[in-house]
Amino acid sequence: MRAPGPVLWRVFFWEAPLDLSSFDIAVVGGGIGGLAAALALRQRGAAVTVLEQAEAITEVGAGLQVSPNGLRVIEALGLGQKLADCSVAGRAVSLRNGATGQEVARLDLSGLAADQRYLFVHRADLIGLLSTAARDQGVQIRLLQKVQSVSTAPRPQITLATGDRRIADLVIGADGLHSVLRPVLSKTEKPFFTRQVAWRAIVPNTMDHPAQARVHMGPGRHMVTYPLRGGDFLNLVAVEERDTWTAEGWSQRDDPENLRQAFSGFGPEVQQMLSGVETAGLWGLFRHPVARTWHRDGAALLGDAAHPTLPFLAQGANMALEDAWALADALSGSADLSTGLASYQSRRRDRVVRVIDAASRNARNYHLSPGPFRFAAHTALGLVSRVAPGQMLRRFDWLYGHDVTQPAG
């Protein structure tokens, strides 16, 4: 008698999906992606512990944009209204001539679908929501846990800087650019300096900045500004092209006068905002290859640990949120851990590559030098945004319209 084929085998020998309630999962990193993954996995029954090296789950001095695709995950986690309550609803993205302050083009966010929202939020507020919800649902969050190394065979094991060891069924590396887990799973590929650095700061909103993200563009530099916390504050991210190498990492500080000097040729609106800068972070922007392998032997990467992106499409946090949901969903719908992790990478890799490439192109578009090409590009953008504003927004359907919480097709 012939053995049954694959279809008949599944019919007669159906394999139940993973029962995550029997899993002990360790998440390395208590940022947005790590906390969202911990919460999503806990909601599916897993026992989850977050290992965070800092002394508190918090982050100060940074805003972020939660676009509709990232917000779908927040809503699916049950936190949509709470996030809206501490955010500013974005109404537009305005591209502006940095020197004159005149608007070049506008992406009118009121044209989004009725069930889509675009929010400006303080990063600490989002992390606070996620960590509170995770703790309330039984996630163990352990602070001052610096991970020294991770091994994957015969069973995933984490070694802490203290020498303590922890064994888990699954280890998730959500530990960012300098991930301890990434070199274990994927060949290390050296990033390259993009010849751009970025400052960030938060200042009081003394100019009645509207509920929009403004991109102030100039030769070799640009600044993005948007309101936070009810409009009381403004988030500033300023990027400058330069040959001088600057290290990665948000913890570095710079003299605010250097930021003001770099943008001294911009108009009065920018000068007013810069006058309020008292402290400024500075970091170098590096282009990192997307990891070729995101998983192996009970370990997986998530967010910047797998695919760091440049900040020119405001998608770093949104991609981490999408990853978190996709990972939990792939595991809960698969017959075994290996299949689930492979499904996760398959769902996510092409999308993040597309997002990263789009972000890299934006940097070039923002930094055009004066001349015929810049004039033509800005004129064309302005014409489209005035005559066919819906067409401008439709260019982002692939990004904002993506809903990772819906069943994979």
Please provide a brief summary of the model.
The chain is an alpha+beta fold and 409 residues long.
Commentary on this structure:
The chain is of the alpha+beta class and 409 residues long. The chain has 13 helices and 20 strands. The strands form four sheets. Strands 6-5-14-15-16-13-18-17 form an eight-stranded mixed beta sheet. Strands 8-2-1-12-20-19 form a six-stranded mixed beta sheet, with helices on one face. Helix 2 packs parallel to helix 5 (123-136), helix 2 (32-43) packs parallel to helix 9 (316-332) and helix 3 packs across helix 9 (316-332). The longest helix is centred in the C-terminal third of the chain and has 30 residues, at 337-366.
Search tags:
alpha+beta, 6-stranded mixed beta sheet, FAD/NAD(P)-binding domain, 409 residues, single chain, 34% helix, globular, 13 helices, 8-stranded mixed beta sheet, disordered N terminus
